[in-house]
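Figure-free illustration: sequence to structure, shown twice.
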Amino acid sequence: MKTLATGFILVSLVLAFYMPFVVTLPKTLAIPKKLQEAVGKVIVNATTCTVTCGLGYKEETICEVGPDGVRRKCKFQRLECLTNWICGMLHFTIPMGKEFELSCLSSDILEVGQESFRFTWRLARGIISTDDELFKPFRTNSHFVRFEPAREFDSGTYRCDVQLLKNLKLVKRLYYGLRVLPPHLVNLNFDQSLTEDQKLVDEGLEVNLDNYSRPPRPAWKKDVASALRVGIASGVAGGVLLSVALCSGLRVIHGDSSLSRFKDWRPKDWLFRKPG
């Protein structure tokens, strides 16, 4: 009897637990009438940000969508976007004495107007680095730094920070690595080292470079090789003439006995013996 009583109690508890769900759960979910007539605004189309770093813009199309799924009252809007405010580093190498300019302006900033932004420059003199602890304030409030002309002292890393004036939000940081070299140290004329085919490619023309051959040797290398050949030939000829003159002089002054002693002293095949 105890076993039957225990089983009856367990079945009763299970039915008591599940009966409210069975009774209260309707077959269909009733949606209120006001909710059925509701209209919501949905972004139906959006573009990516115009820039990968710094302040940019994206375009969105927003429409009202009702229960029937039809788009109504669509409107187009253009919004600011900021994907990443750190824009990396640009490297420049220029000869000393050349006029040069670093500028923080971009097409998007020009479109809004540079008067809407604040530009702050800092400098790590004499080193190329992005370590912000090395930078010191650089006195200029303009969007550019101009060198008239560039000096070797101007070498270093320049950092430009761009902020919105309305809230001082940092929207762009760009580093410029500048190297100023003496003109006699290196030749920065890149076009001078190009072959004729490479110059045509640089101008935008299509040239088949599959049959590319080694570029011709510079003229100064040809001059050095010619001078070495002439020097070696002159040295050999001078040695032969000196030997002939010495032998003739000894024969005239001391006779054939001195000449034979000179030949005995001279190493055999000394003139044509290979070195080493």
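We now fold a second protein in the same way, so the two outputs can be compared directly.
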Amino acid sequence: MGVSNKITAVLNFTALLCSIPIMASGIWLASKPDNECIRSFRWPIFVLGVLILLVSLTGFIGAYFNKQGLLALYLFCMAALIILLLVVLIFAFTVTKPDGSYGVPGRAYREYRLDGFSKWLRDYVTDSGNWQKIRVCLAESDTCPNLTQNYITADQFFAAHISPLQSGCCKPPTACGYNYVNPNLWINPVNPSADPDCLLWNNDQNILCYNCNSCRAGLLGNLRKEWRRANVILIVAVVILIWVYVIACSAFKNAQTEELFSRYKQGWV
């Protein structure tokens, strides 16, 4: 195996290692309650990581056994995957840039407005067709029941940094003026006309605020928070992959030159 092929093999092994955090971030995203309820959001990052792993493995085998056809296929596929990863990153940053959260006096947690998020997220995630399935899934999860196990008094709950999903779906908006009994039980609103969601709140544990716009907004808040965390890992990975790809292209050209020079020498011997 020539020097250039050795370099290419090492670089492909590095790219293979880069696929691991990408797949890990995909699994982490898929395990979140909100992504469990939105199937199309669950596995795209994980699948992308698997593809990078397979392509890197192809390049490693091609370099190790000096298979120029496999190396050419690797370079083409890796370029396509890097472009796809960049598109995913740009799209994710664009749709998660708007932040619909706002602070509430006397509360450690934030609340969320639906119109504060990107139009694509609002239209895709919270339209009536998708929301009915998401609503049922959220009601069956332990997102809201967990609050009653973790917080007992009002002071404990108001000082808690609960998730956007819990803030939007598990309690009524603060503006309604409901009185706290427990995190999932609120009574006697002082200002029920302050927000349309005030009248949608129901102490039935299967209903709560799952029909509220605040719940839709909380779901988008969760998605935004999680995807922006995952984007950090993806940025680091794509920078390394681009660096690996550029050097691999150079090594591939050098390998071809070495092969031509070897044939030329054999022709003269």
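Summary for the second example: Residues 125 and 131 are 7 Å apart (CA to CA).
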